[in-house]
Amino acid sequence: MELRTAASPKDMKHYTTQRLREEFLIQDLFLPGQIRMVYSHVDRIITGGAVPVHPLKLTAGVELCAEYFLQRREMGVINVGGPGTITVDGKEYQTGYKEGMYIGMGAKGIAFASMDAEEPAKFYIISAPAHKTYPTVLIKPEGTTEEGVVIVKDKNKVEMGALEDANHRVICKYILPGQVESCQLVMGMTKLAPGSVWNTMPCHTHDRRMEVYLYFEMPEDAIVMHYMGEPDETRHIVMRNEEAVISPSWSIHAGCGTRAYTFIWGMVGENQAFDDMDNVEMKDLQ
């Protein structure tokens, strides 16, 4: 587990490109046979990836000073690879591509496996501190109702933007109040339509929570210019397939790609209201 400290917007104004990448960019999340974690002091979020070419068990590590990983935490997981399984305290959940899970505080035994080691699962993980236990559930974007499975509600699949503005996209909300309850974690996925490249513009901040983006479904030669920083002091990070970026609450978070892509967003903080945003007018961006 890699540790990263919080960054001040005053300091960020003086960062070089390399320093900006060191502080906020997360690379090499999906390494075969490994669980890779980055612990950020920004709202104590943990961003991780697990690629089980053989079964992998999640442990707390010395960094958490806990008996087990979710002793004082909750977790959201979305599979961006081949079919796999997540076992929680002896119960096995089969998870296909873009299917997810919420795992509540107190779950002790967590293990990841792939159906086929030649096409391994890639489990993307977001974890936040928790104060209460909520039910562990499997989340599917679509499908028929099954016992113990949450299907994303139609109202939580939101089509936004327009091709004329290069931001036609569908937002699919996985973890949020009224569908999958959590202490503070909100998580979902946004897919851009062919021909669209902006994930959000006009952009926004939200002082009451921070956010992490994972960009994926990008060809090897594609990039996303991820914009961050204070609205009048913007910076950018060049990002590639299956890379993540940390966005503090004071920072905008918007990306423009060389072609359409998909990204997973995960937010933690004191407010779970998806629409609680401090919108930034285009004229105020610098």
Automatic annotation (TrEMBL):
The keyword Protein biosynthesis does not apply. Pfam families: KduI. Its cofactor is Zn(2+). InterPro entries: KduI, KduI/IolB_isomerase, KduI_N, RmlC-like_jellyroll, RmlC_Cupin_sf. It is an enzyme of class 5 (isomerase). Keywords: Isomerase, Metal-binding, Zinc. Gene3D superfamilies: Jelly Rolls (2.60.120.10), pectin degrading enzyme 5-keto 4- deoxyuronate isomerase, domain 1 (2.60.120.520). Catalyzes the isomerization of 5-dehydro-4-deoxy-D-glucuronate to 3-deoxy-D-glycero-2,5-hexodiulosonate. Belongs to the KduI family. This is 4-deoxy-L-threo-5-hexosulose-uronate ketol-isomerase. The gene is kduI.
